[in-house]
C-alpha cells in the first residue's frame, strides 16, 4: 500500500510544484515533499489530480495498459446532436490520430462549485453539459475532441480517475488515502 493524495485542482493552477512565470502551482496548496502528480490536468481545467510518492503506483495510474477511466463533466458551446455524440463515442480523428472510443452522455447541469472567474456566457449561443470518460491521456484531449465535433469546451472538470473521485473535496483541498493498483504483466494477467 502507498499513500496517494486526491487534490481538487482549481482553475488556472499548474499541475506541477514550480513555475518560472509566477503562475499558481500545486505548492500554493500542498506541502507534500516527495509527492508527484500521477498524470496532468491542464492549467485551465479543474478537478481531480492524483499525487503519489510511489513511482510504481504513479506509472500504473498513468499507463494506458491499466486502462483507468477518467471521467469529466464538460460544459460545451451549443447542444450536441446524436451524430456528434456518436462521433465522440466511436473516436474522433485529431492531428495526432484517432482517439480510442469514449463513454459519452448528456447530463443536466451538475452541482459544482463556482468557478472564478466564471465562464463567458453568450446570450445568443446556448451551452450544455456532457459526461465524457476516456482511458487515454493525450494533451488537451477532451477539449480537442469536443472542438472536432463542433462544440468547443467552455469548462472542463475531471470528477474521477478509476475508483477515485473528487466528491466532497472543495477546490484547493486534498485528502490522503492508502492505495494499491493490481500489477498486470504484459499479457494482462495479474
TrEMBL record:
Q: What keywords are annotated for this sequence in UniProt?
A: Isomerase
Q: What single Pfam family name could you report for this chain, choosing any that match?
A: PseudoU_synth_2
| Official protein name in the record | Pseudouridine synthase
InterPro entries this protein is in? PsdUridine_s_RsuA/RluB/E/F_cat, PsdUridine_synth_cat_dom_sf, PsdUridine_synth_RsuA/RluA, PsdUridine_synth_RsuA/RluB/E/F, RsuA_PseudoU_synthase, TruA/RsuA/RluB/E/F_N
Asked whether the UniProt record includes Isomerase among its keywords, one would answer: yes
Q: Which organism is it from?
A: Candidatus Marimicrobium litorale
Phylogenetic classification of the source organism: Bacteria, Pseudomonadati, Pseudomonadota, Gammaproteobacteria, Cellvibrionales
Pseudouridine synthase RsuA/RluA-like domain location is 4-148
Amino acid at each position: 500500500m502507498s499513500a496517494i493524495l486526491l487534490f481538487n485542482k482549481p482553475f488556472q493552477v499548474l499541475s506541477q510544484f514550480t513555475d518560472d512565470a509566477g503562475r499558481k502551482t500545486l505548492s500554493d496548496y500542498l506541502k507534500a515533499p516527495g509527492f508527484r502528480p500521477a498524470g496532468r490536468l491542464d492549467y485551465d481545467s479543474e478537478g481531480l489530480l492524483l499525487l503519489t510518492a510511489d513511482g510504481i503506483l504513479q506509472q500504473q495510474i498513468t499507463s494506458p495498459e491499466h486502462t483507468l477511466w477518467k471521467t469529466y463533466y464538460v460544459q460545451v458551446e451549443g447542444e450536441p446532436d446524436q451524430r456528434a455524440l456518436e462521433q465522440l463515442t466511436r473516436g474522433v480523428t485529431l492531428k495526432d490520430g484517432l482517439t480510442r472510443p469514449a463513454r459519452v452522455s448528456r447530463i443536466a447541469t451538475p452541482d459544482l462549485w463556482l468557478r472564478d472567474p466564471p465562464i463567458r456566457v453568450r446570450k445568443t449561443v446556448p451551452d450544455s453539459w456532457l459526461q465524457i470518460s476516456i482511458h487515454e491521456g493525450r494533451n488537451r484531449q477532451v477539449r480537442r475532441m469536443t472542438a472536432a465535433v463542433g462544440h468547443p469546451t467552455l469548462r472542463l472538470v475531471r470528477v474521477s480517475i478509476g475508483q477515485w473521485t473528487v466528491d466532497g473535496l472543495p477546490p484547493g483541498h486534498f485528502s490522503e488515502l492508502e492505495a494499491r493498483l493490481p500489477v498486470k504483466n504484459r499479457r494482462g494477467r495479474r
